[in-house]
Structure formats: structure tokens, C-alpha cells
Write a structure and sequence with these properties.
Blueprint lengths: L2 H24 L2 E2 L6 E2 L16 H6 L2 H9 L37 H5 L6 E7 L2 H11 L7 H15 L7 E4 L4 H7 L3 H6 L5 H4 L7 E2 L4 E3 L11 H8 L3 E3 L9 E9 L3 H12 L4 E9 L2
Parallel strand pairs: 3-9, 4-5, 4-8, 8-9
Antiparallel strand pairs: 1-2, 6-7
């Protein structure tokens, strides 16, 4: 590598860090979680502005260390440990992390009794405390700048859990058209669309497609909050349909959503995709409720 380029890069990084220190001294960052003001850590980074992501550097990081790096401009150091990543031992089907930290991965009791149309579900972290706050800030407070760091977390989980499991098409769970117009964006697609950037494409299979037109939400559904599994299943029954022009025959699909609670929504989407000819459906979510 050209030594002059290295010197220039180091000089630029030094000036950039000095500018961040000066700027944050005048305008301290405010923590999304606790609301306190704090100074930017020296190792913080903005994934929306970074160069190509190195697969080796991604693989060497844990989900917790990556969360700390990309969310340090949004979460203070005191609140950062409130993020809990999904780690083994977990259910090999639904991805639920077992409370006991001993033993290996295995199918949980609920999955032994339930009928799943998806083959495997995994999530970035537990849906509580700081990750819950981040997801809510994106969805309900319209803090769209959080989509880029969330995208990097999803990418990390994808590379970790699907490193030896081929995927052809990535599909975000759609919103009903009235909710989309009201919110102004689909928070799931907003996150995974960053994967289409050259920044991320160098670590993804060249043939991988991201297609938000595969599924349509054909009717509005009441909020799932407070409903049990059976009521959630009834709530989303026939709420989704495959787009008439979606070519998914024989395709291996990855369905992406923000939160997995009982799995009713993603299971219904997986049913529609399988009936439409998909070879199999896996699920990736930002958060997993416990």
C-alpha cells in the first residue's frame, strides 16, 4: 500500500477526531436511553459514512462490541452494557436464548409443539432496555439516522448465523399502505436497504437480492401488543399475500422484521412464501422478545 496514502489517511482521521472533540465540547451528545449528555468516545464510528466493510473485521467482532462501536454516538457508556446480544445456548428453530447459560443449542419446548413454516429464526439481541429504546426511536420517533447502525448489526447477525446457509432473496415484512403513509417509511426496509451499498456488498453473496415487492400487506391489523400467541395468529391470518409478479419459485428466502415476539407475523409471511413456491424461509429480526 502507498505510504503517502497511509499518511494522508492518518492525518485526515486525526483532523476528523479533533473536529469531533471540538464539536462535542460545544454540542454534547444526548443519550437515547437515559437522556444524559456525554462526550463522543474516541472509537465511535458512523456506518453510513464508512468505507467498505471488511469481512475479517466483522467476523472478529462480537455483537456487543459492534453495538458499542456503532451506537456510541447515540448511547452513553453507562447505558451501553444494557444491550444483551443473542448468544448460545439457544433454540435451533426459533432462536430463543435459554435463561440457563449451560449446555448446547437445542429445540425449545414451544417449538416442539408449534407448527412453524419458517426453518430457522435468529435475532441480533434481546428486546428490552437499550435495544427496545433504539427500535422504538426509529419506528415511533422517526429517528431515521439509527437505520445505518442497525443495518450493520443485522449484517453482522446474517454473516454469523447464515455463513454456511445459502440465501437467494431478502424480504422485509411489509406495512399496510395506510400505516406506511402515516409513518413515512418501512423501518425494516430502511435498515436492510443499506446492504445494497458498495460499503456492504463486498461481504455479501453477489447473487443476493433485496426485494421489498415480494410480499404485500393486504389488510390492516390491530396492534399485536398485549395479545397471546393464538390471538396474534388470528390477527395476522391472511393479512399478507405474495405479489402477483414475484418470482420466488425454488428461491431460498430470508424474511426480515424488527421484533420477534411469538413469531405469528413472520410465520404467516413464511406460509405465504412457501405456498407461493419458495424452497424455504428463514427469519432474521433486530430483536427477540423474552
Amino acid at each position: 500500500m502507498n505510504q503517502d496514502v497511509d499518511v494522508k489517511d492518518a492525518s485526515f482521521m486525526g483532523r476528523s477526531h479533533a473536529w469531533n472533540v471540538f464539536k462535542d465540547a460545544l454540542f454534547p451528545l444526548k443519550c437515547l436511553m437515559c437522556g444524559r449528555y456525554y462526550l463522543r468516545p474516541s472509537d465511535s464510528e458512523d456506518p453510513a459514512q464508512k468505507g467498505p466493510v471488511a469481512e475479517t473485521s466483522m467476523a472478529s467482532q462480537t455483537a456487543a462490541s459492534l453495538f458499542q462501536r456503532v451506537f456510541s454516538p447515540h448511547i452513553c457508556p453507562d447505558c451501553m452494557p444494557l444491550f444483551t446480544p443473542i448468544e448460545s445456548p439457544l433454540c435451533t428453530w426459533c432462536g430463543m436464548m435459554f435463561s440457563s447459560r449451560e449446555g448446547g443449542d437445542h429445540v425449545c419446548g414451544a417449538c416442539l409443539e408449534a407448527k412453524h413454516y419458517f426453518s430457522m429464526a435468529r435475532a441480533v439481541g434481546i428486546y428490552h432496555q437499550v435495544l427496545m429504546k433504539v427500535v422504538h426511536a426509529l419506528k415511533y420517533e422517526k429517528k431515521v439516522n439509527l437505520a445505518a447502525p442497525l443495518s450493520l448489526l443485522l449484517l453482522h447477525a446474517f454473516l454469523h448465523f447464515w455463513h454456511d446457509r445459502p440465501v437467494d432473496v431478502v424480504v422485509p415484512v411489509p406495512l399496510f399502505h395506510r400505516r406506511f403513509r402515516s409513518r413515512g417509511f418501512n423501518q425494516v426496509y430502511l435498515a436492510i436497504k443499506y446492504w445494497t451499498r458498495q460499503t456492504y456488498r463486498n461481504v455479501l453473496p453477489r447473487s443476493l437480492e433485496i426485494d421489498r415487492q415480494v410480499l404485500v400487506r393486504q389488510r390492516s391489523t390491530p396492534p399485536q401488543t398485549g395479545l397471546g400467541r393464538r390471538d396474534r395468529m388470528r390477527n395476522v391470518k391472511d393479512a399478507f399475500a405474495r405479489h402477483a409478479h414475484a418470482a420466488i419459485e425454488g428461491k431460498r428466502m430470508l424474511l426480515v422484521d424488527d421484533v420477534y415476539t411469538t413469531g405469528a407475523t413472520v410465520n404467516e409471511c413464511a406460509r405465504v412464501l412457501l405456498h407461493g413456491g419458495a424452497a424455504n424461509v428463514d427469519v432474521l429480526t433486530l430483536a427477540r422478545a423474552i
